[in-house]
């Protein structure tokens, strides 16, 4: 009806808030993917020989692997030779203090609401800011250092803690996992590294903020988080990019390792540029994220709020190897305009008494298509494995789509796997009800959507939950049916 | 307060209201009765501004302003309240937050600052007591998993909180058991004063034993065919609607 269309149009008409471009001198590698480029990146980062070898192996695998064909969207042709694989703000590769950082860069993060000067920061959140290929600044380092916590850029970790990187790199997401993981392992630029020592409960949220700025570049960051015995960490990533007419590729890899009794909580608020309302431009967000509960009674919890990107394609999963370990996945994925999301999780039960919980909330509006794809796999030794999956879809308007592909493979007859699914529509009746109480259309839609996503939003750290709620409403500006 | 003149409305091209005339003054309670499909709920929907109803003719003046020119939320903010025949469920939206938003939206419209948390909670408590509303329902999601009766009571509770000038109750009595009916009616009676007015749409005379109307109108085939005082309701209870239909058929021109 027309009121709904008005809201939809209004929502759709909302500009992407973070679409500006920072004018800064950049060091950009020529487009193209070959061994020379990989050597160039590795040399730029002054990497040890073993890492260069590892990259080259990744490149070989990339050349052998083929594109998957099971996804529920039309995979766009990506010309890997047209992408530049390295872009860094000129002048310095490594910053020793914020004073050395180009003020233009600091202003960029300020504009994004991520001030890097510590006195202005959200208290209790340490931030690593990644601008194109380079980590710009990591805050609260000294404070964390006292506890033995390592939180730094990936490049720095390679230099300072090579033994840890070597031990864990590629152990959760093998280079051969998929073609984008192979690509990432060949050309990854930067990212964050976290190590929480035994028995330490990280006292603040650790956060990485990714910003793609340069044109025709891809972003290929790698994040590695290791929580040693009985430690705890909560980590959050956020991301934005300028508005551009051409598509840009983001192919990250995230690996989490939880040892005995350790807990990792990983939250993502993904707000890459989604393209315009006709589907022009936007980020291809092809990401491989996986955690392993290696130790007994360990826990890994993924929470994601996916509002951006032209295409989101990712399945943060947990390998439940340790006995009594727990894996969780909480997701809200929104697709408006012509956005596409094919996302979900993989829970692989290997150890005894392992538990997993999946709560997925898809929201489709405009011409958006939202797919939940999930795998729950129970191995022969996973006695008493438990899974609960709830998979809800909310439709706004009548031109969008919601799809669900749950896969369950159980090789152990003591396993209990539950799956619940619902599909609903934001009704004209619901909006009218709220209207009749004095609440306008836009706010009505916000209330309904936030109510629907509440179970997931509740999982986010407080500051980010507020941020995520705002993002949801901005993304959906344009959507009642 | 409300002045409806020659109101015509249609849904998907089908005429539903065919010339309604009705005047409601402050302090009055009007009951609208009539057989199924006569247009009672449609009248409520048109007054509240439901999108699917198209006004084809006539005018509605509400407190000196053109009601039909306002969006549904502005009508609400101006003081028009509809207690729904079927209140909807909105999962995950807490009853309290919803009410707070509604109260503050209406205040903002009238240039008043948002209500402070303490003042709001005090108001909530006093109205809960007044309306005998179960505090447990307050903390739940809006109507989610409520029984039919609880939903209706929640609507009436909202009415108490929002303090409308004109409340339209669309078959609020349907689905209520006798006890709930008594509580809801008592609540409405407590809210009645010389400055507000009620339009009560109902099938049954029973509700009108509890909420005594000043006027009773019979709606049939999109028009008010008979108006009277509360005695008319008793007459309808006794004789049904058929005698009225007969009268009207005789009056209608041959087509």
Give a written overview of the molecule.
The complex is a heterodimer of chains A (481) and B (255). In chain A, β3 and β4 form a beta hairpin. In chain A, strands 5, 6, 8, 10, 11, 13, 15, 16, 18, 20 and 22 form an 11-stranded mixed β-sheet that branches. In chain A, strands 4-3-7-9-12-14-17-19-21-23 form a 10-stranded mixed β-sheet. By secondary structure, chain A is α/β, with parallel strands linked by helices. Chain A is globular, with a radius of gyration of 22 Å. Chain A is built from 11 helices and 23 strands. Chain A has helices at residues 2-13, 35-44, 49-64, 103-111, 141-146, 154-160, 162-168, 179-187, 428-435, 441-457, 462-476, and strands at 26-28, 87-89, 125-131, 134-138, 150-153, 192-196, 205-211, 222-227, 232-240, 247-250, 253-258, 263-270, 282-293, 299-306, 311-314, 317-320, 326-335, 340-349, 355-365, 369-378, 386-396, 401-410, 416-425. In chain A, 58% of the residues are buried. Chain A has one domain. By secondary structure, chain B is α/β, with parallel strands linked by helices. Chain B has a single domain (2-84, 146-251), classed as P-loop containing nucleotide triphosphate hydrolases (Rossmann fold, 3-Layer(aba) Sandwich), CATH 3.40.50. Helix content of chain B is 41%, strand content 28%. Chain B has 10 helices and 12 strands. Chain B has helices spanning 40-48, 72-78, 95-109, 117-131, 135-138, 148-162, 178-191, 206-210, 230-239, 242-251; strands at 2-11, 14-24, 29-33, 53-62, 65-66, 80-83, 90-94, 141-142, 166-170, 197-201, 215-220, 223-228. In chain B, the strands form 3 sheets. In chain B, strands 6-9-10-3-11-12 form a 6-stranded mixed β-sheet, sandwiched between helices. Chain B has a 4-stranded antiparallel β-sheet with strand order 2-1-4-5. In chain B, strands 7-8 form a two-stranded antiparallel ribbon. In chain B, α2 (72-78) crosses α3. The model of chain B has no long low-confidence stretch (mean pLDDT 90). The chains are: A alpha/beta (481), B alpha/beta (255).
């Amino acid at each position: 009806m027309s009121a709904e269309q008005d809201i939809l149009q209004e929502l759709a008409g909302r500009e992407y808030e973070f679409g500006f471009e920072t004018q800064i001198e950049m060091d950009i590698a020529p487009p193209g993917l070959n061994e020379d480029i990989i050597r160039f990146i590795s040399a730029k980062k002054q990497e040890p020989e073993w890492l260069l070898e590892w990259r080259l192996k990744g490149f070989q695998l990339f050349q052998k692997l083929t594109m998957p064909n099971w996804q529920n969207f039309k995979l766009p042709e990506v010309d890997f030779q047209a992408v530049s694989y390295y872009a860094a703000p000129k002048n310095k590769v490594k910053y020793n203090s914020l004073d050395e950082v180009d003020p233009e860069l600091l202003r960029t993060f300020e504009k994004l609401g991520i001030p890097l000067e510590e006195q202005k920061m959200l208290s209790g959140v340490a931030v690593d800011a990644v601008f194109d290929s380079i980590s710009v600044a990591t805050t609260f380092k000294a404070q964390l250092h006292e506890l033995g916590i390592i939180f730094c850029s990936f490049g720095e970790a390679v230099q300072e803690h090579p033994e840890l990187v070597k031990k864990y790199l590629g152990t959760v997401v093998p280079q051969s996992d998929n073609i984008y993981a192979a690509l990432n392992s060949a050309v990854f630029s930067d990212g964050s590294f976290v190590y929480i020592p035994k028995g330490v409960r990280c006292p603040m949220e650790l956060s990485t903020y990714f910003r793609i700025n340069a044109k025709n570049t891809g972003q290929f960051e790698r994040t590695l988080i290791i929580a040693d015995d009985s430690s705890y960490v909560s980590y959050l990533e956020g991301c934005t990019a300028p508005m551009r007419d051409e598509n840009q590729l983001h192919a990250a890899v995230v690996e989490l390792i939880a040892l005995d009794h350790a807990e990792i909580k990983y939250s993502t608020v993904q707000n890459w540029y989604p393209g315009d309302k006709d589907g022009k431009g936007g980020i291809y967000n092809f990401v491989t994220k996986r955690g392993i509960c290696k130790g007994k009674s360990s826990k890994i919890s993924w929470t994601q709020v996916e509002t951006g990107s032209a295409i989101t394609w990712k399945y943060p999963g947990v390998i439940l190897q340790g006995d009594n370990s727990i894996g969780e996945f909480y997701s809200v994925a929104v697709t408006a305009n012509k956005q596409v999301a094919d996302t979900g999780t993989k829970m692989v039960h290997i150890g005894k008494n392992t538990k997993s919980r999946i709560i997925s909330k898809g929201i489709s509006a405009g011409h958006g298509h939202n797919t939940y794809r999930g795998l729950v796999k129970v191995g022969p030794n996973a006695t008493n494995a438990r899974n609960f999956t709830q998979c809800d879809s909310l439709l706004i308007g009548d031109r969008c789509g919601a799809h669900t592909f749950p896969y369950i493979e159980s090789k152990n007859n003591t396993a209990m796997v539950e799956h619940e699914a619902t599909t609903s529509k934001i009704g004209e009746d619901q909006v009218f009800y709220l209207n009749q109480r004095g609440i306008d259309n836009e706010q009505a839609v916000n209330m309904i959507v936030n109510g629907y996503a509440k179970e997931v939003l509740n999982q986010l750290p407080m500051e980010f939950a507020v941020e995520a709620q705002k993002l949801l409403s901005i993304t959906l500006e344009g959507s009642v049916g | 307060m409300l002045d409806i003149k020659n109101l015509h409305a249609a849904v998907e091209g089908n005429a539903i209201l065919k010339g309604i005339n009705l005047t409601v003054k402050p302090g009055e309670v009007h009951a609208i009765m009539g057989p199924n499909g006569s247009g009672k709920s449609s009248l409520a929907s048109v007054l509240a501004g439901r999108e699917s109803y198209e006004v084809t003719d006539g005018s509605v003046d509400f407190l000196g302003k053109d009601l039909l020119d306002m969006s549904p939320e502005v009508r609400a903010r101006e003081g028009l309240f509809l207690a729904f025949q079927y209140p909807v469920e909105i999962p995950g939206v807490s009853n309290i937050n919803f009410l707070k938003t509604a109260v503050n939206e209406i205040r903002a419209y009238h240039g008043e600052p948002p209500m402070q948390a303490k003042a709001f909670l005090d108001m909530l408590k006093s109205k809960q007591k007044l309306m005998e509303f179960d505090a447990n329902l307050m903390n739940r999601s809006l109507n989610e998993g409520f029984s039919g009766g609880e939903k209706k009571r929640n609507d009436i509770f909202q009415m108490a909180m929002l303090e409308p000038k004109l409340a339209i109750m669309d078959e609020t009595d349907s689905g209520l058991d006798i006890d709930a009916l008594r509580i809801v009616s008592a609540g409405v009676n407590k809210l009645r004063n010389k400055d507000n007015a009620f339009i009560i749409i109902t099938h049954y005379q029973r509700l009108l034993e509890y909420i005594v109307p000043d006027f009773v109108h019979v709606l049939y085939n999109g028009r008010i065919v008979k108006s009277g005082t509360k005695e008319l309701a008793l007459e309808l209870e006794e004789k049904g609607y058929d005698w009225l239909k007969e009268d009207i058929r005789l009056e209608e021109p041959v087509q």
